[in-house]
Amino acid sequence: MSDAPRTGHNYDGIEEYDNPLPGWWKWLFIGTIAFSPFYWVYYHSGVAGRSVEDQYGVALAAATRLQFAEIGDLQPDTETIARYMHKDNWVRVGHSVFQANCISCHGREGEGQIGPNLTDEHFKNITTLADIATVINKGAGNGAMPAWANRLHPNEIVLVSAYVASLRGKDLSGPRGPEGRNIAPWPEPPPEPEEDADQDAAEQDS
Prior knowledge:
Transmembrane segments: 24-42
CATH class of the largest domain: Mainly Alpha
CATH architecture of the largest domain: Orthogonal Bundle
Region (Disordered): 170-206
Number of helices: 8
CATH superfamily of the largest domain: Cytochrome c-like domain
Number of strands: 2
Protein name: Cbb3-type cytochrome c oxidase subunit CcoP1
Pfam families: Cytochrome_CBB3, FixP_N
Strand order of the largest sheet: 1-2
Largest sheet: 2 strands, antiparallel
InterPro entries: CcoP_N, CcoP_N_sf, Cyt_c-like_dom, Cyt_c-like_dom_sf, Cyt_C_IC, Cytochrome_c_Oxidase_Subunit
CATH topology of the largest domain: Cytochrome Bc1 Complex, Chain D, domain 2
């Protein structure tokens, strides 16, 4: 019979040895508990850009820049934005750019915070689709909306413009009321060149 100390517990004649956990294990466990509130505050308190989802979006946008060679340099005009706002794979890239740079002012879903609501039918500085890219490039409101021309790739400007355009009509509620004026609906996308149409079909089938 072992001389190891026992706990004194007895279950139907079965005794329990007193084998405490190693000290290092206990302190490691206590340390994880002490660390957990700081971890929660940093990653799960809603601060923009810290969640795993937000970091994934930033990484996705960075990886997508490597794919820009396949579409070349996009022009920030109405026709190009109208075309890309109907390409789901590229709108997701614009969404990633938006999540990485715009949610602190315009809200996570474009519902508006410091900046105006992007999901309603009212627009302050926009008349055409191309104006979205112009505002992003040059800024607006005497600096209230900063210029992003020197901080984003030209293709990112076009794709985030396409994403912003796609938010119109969702009418999400935000802290700011309607601002600006009603404008004409966005134009229909131009016909796809045959080779682009074939490529889009292949991407949807894959």
